[in-house]
Amino acid sequence: MARYDASRHSTFTYPNAPLPFPPARNHPLITSELRLASVVSTMDAARELATTQDYLLVSAETQSGGKGTRGRAWRSPPGNIYMTVGIHRRRLPAPRLALLPLELGLHLWEESASRVTEEARSGLKLKWPNDLLYQGRKTAGILVESFGDYLMAGFGINVAAAPEVTDGGAPAACLAEAGIPPGSREALVEGIYQRIRAAESDPESILLAWQAKVDWDRPVRLRDREGSPKVTAVSVNRHGHLLVRHGNGTEEWLVSEYLL
What we know:
Layout: E1 31-39, H1 42-49, E2 55-63, E3 81-88, H2 94-98, H3 100-113, H4 118-121, E4 124-127, E5 131-134, E6 137-147, E7 150-157, H5 185-198, H6 203-212, E8 220-221, E9 230-236, E10 242-246, E11 251-254
Parallel strand pairs: 1-2
Antiparallel strand pairs: 2-3, 3-7, 4-5, 5-6, 6-7, 8-9, 9-10, 10-11
Helix pairs in contact: 3-5, 3-6
């Protein structure tokens, strides 16, 4: 199993450069939550809601125009989770910002694992940077985008149903297959949001916890490259980049890539 090796990568130090926003530790949280029956996209609704909040949440029962990685359509039938969490940059010191995609995946795994059956828990894994898999099939994905003073994290989580995948992406699963109780949707939304709000900036702990949730022996392919070449995941660094090894033995750091 691959491990995070602090001796191989640079240490967790960051320059004392001025922050673009004043520290937020000493003032109460400003938050907004919006729950909708239907929306074109929770990401779009969150952008409209964002003003000066520290954190904000928009969730909907259905979406008519949800998007995934590379602008691919995200099918959004009732019974699943569609939510966007906005985090103001004053809540994102440099160490947390660098690993935010991995951190979000951890919150997703931890909240989901706490609600499925004990027998099914070992089947939940993370795929870089933050896809949730159940028995090797995609159960949830997170899209992180920058919007003004915010980082917006859109979550699509298959709870009750696994929509058919028709665009060549990874096969789908849903948390109902892992024994999540019926009616858990709202509790799962709130649990993930609370975990994000309560998170501390601890890069080394995030990296160690994240790598423990990954199936390092699972083969992966680079979907958007010619021939979708197979690679082996090796390790992750303090920036959240993934080191992979190609079939010819060469290694490459991935910054933004869609893995199958």
